[in-house]
């Protein structure tokens, strides 16, 4: 339970940082999705699906911070977390390649899913402009920042990890 | 205990994912139809308060850092200033005369196109945390008299320009949709030829806006730098608010209208203060939208 709270708090903190301190963007006005990187980390190290629940909660908070309708980021984040959890069964975490692929992959998945949501739901829903130069910058930026977030959080990984109670002898 | 990486994901993982995804879709379905009141209250008081706090912490640190660096330069500047003091004393007399003249000119020119309207000043405290939505958060809300769909303008470098409109009002903060948002539309016209069209954002702060539906017959008279203003026909924005200037334009084959890029009058990347216009105060003066 504590790991869920810590992961949620860390990701929500990143959301606030994104909306205030990083609001002008880092390059070409593009804001890196640090919250998503934290959620990917939580999902990847917890194979029991804890990261999906955290992503859903953080997604609801992101919807409240954003002009998006409630449930938009909850769906996008939960989907990415689910895929990251599935991926954790097939590969091990490394320093660069896996975090980078997770960051860029999650951005692409969010891009395509947002298009589908925009088609299915009402006209007021925005979607990623996946063929724009800005999306390319965001893709690379999210990949690189995910590497950095994975590196930094690996020092405090035990706080983010679900620790089941030890079985009785 | 066996290492879980040798096994596939358990049924519980799929169940958790399915529950979260279905739940988020259900919420999305409900929220796109109608806003639930409880999250609004939470957004208004808790989220708005937290955003204000983060903004305050940010400005505190930036001011502190700024003050320290200023102190370093004060020592150097002090001696220089002493020398310049005498020079400035003589200029002060000229300055007083210029100030009076400037005041008179301001009264004469009255640069604002909306002189008798109620404008509520607000500080931009945050932006959307993602790149998909491009909304801005201001520190004034329902309690301050802000209402949904209020037009928002700003002044920059002596120019008055359109910024966007309010799309969500909370207790102490509001969300405004800037004109570069991909879902922003406003009735616009070319100030010179009075040709009417519609302005639409491209979704990115640095991208020009698109002025659509200007007839191709206007092509001969159109020039780069021509001013684009609101027409007021959309019943949202008052007429004659400057939107920007014409950049590149082209005529697509088999199209009856031009595609015109418009450079916004206000640089929204460095915007700090905005003014929400109370349209109801304009209606009494007969200068409201659509008039």
Automatic annotation (TrEMBL), chain A:
<dbReference type="GO" id="GO:0008360">
    <property type="term" value="P:regulation of cell shape"/>
</dbReference>
<protein>
    <submittedName>
        <fullName>Putative Rod shape-determining protein MreD</fullName>
    </submittedName>
</protein>
<keyword id="KW-1133">Transmembrane helix</keyword>
<keyword id="KW-0472">Membrane</keyword>
<feature type="transmembrane region" description="Helical">
    <location>
        <begin position="72"/>
        <end position="90"/>
    </location>
</feature>
<feature type="transmembrane region" description="Helical">
    <location>
        <begin position="49"/>
        <end position="65"/>
    </location>
</feature>
<dbReference type="GO" id="GO:0005886">
    <property type="term" value="C:plasma membrane"/>
</dbReference>
<comment type="similarity">
    <text>Belongs to the MreD family.</text>
</comment>
<dbReference type="Pfam" id="PF04093">
    <property type="entry name" value="MreD"/>
</dbReference>
<feature type="transmembrane region" description="Helical">
    <location>
        <begin position="139"/>
        <end position="160"/>
    </location>
</feature>
<keyword id="KW-1003">Cell membrane</keyword>
<keyword id="KW-0133">Cell shape</keyword>
<dbReference type="InterPro" id="IPR007227">
    <property type="entry name" value="Cell_shape_determining_MreD"/>
</dbReference>
<keyword id="KW-0812">Transmembrane</keyword>
<feature type="transmembrane region" description="Helical">
    <location>
        <begin position="96"/>
        <end position="118"/>
    </location>
</feature>
From TrEMBL, chain B:
<dbReference type="GO" id="GO:0005886">
    <property type="term" value="C:plasma membrane"/>
</dbReference>
<comment type="function">
    <text>Involved in formation and maintenance of cell shape.</text>
</comment>
<dbReference type="InterPro" id="IPR042175">
    <property type="entry name" value="Cell/Rod_MreC_2"/>
</dbReference>
<dbReference type="Pfam" id="PF04085">
    <property type="entry name" value="MreC"/>
</dbReference>
<feature type="coiled-coil region">
    <location>
        <begin position="71"/>
        <end position="108"/>
    </location>
</feature>
<keyword id="KW-0133">Cell shape</keyword>
<dbReference type="InterPro" id="IPR055342">
    <property type="entry name" value="MreC_beta-barrel_core"/>
</dbReference>
<dbReference type="InterPro" id="IPR007221">
    <property type="entry name" value="MreC"/>
</dbReference>
<protein>
    <recommendedName>
        <fullName>Cell shape-determining protein MreC</fullName>
    </recommendedName>
</protein>
<keyword id="KW-0175">Coiled coil</keyword>
<dbReference type="GO" id="GO:0008360">
    <property type="term" value="P:regulation of cell shape"/>
</dbReference>
<dbReference type="InterPro" id="IPR042177">
    <property type="entry name" value="Cell/Rod_1"/>
</dbReference>
<feature type="domain" description="Rod shape-determining protein MreC beta-barrel core">
    <location>
        <begin position="124"/>
        <end position="277"/>
    </location>
</feature>
<comment type="similarity">
    <text>Belongs to the MreC family.</text>
</comment>
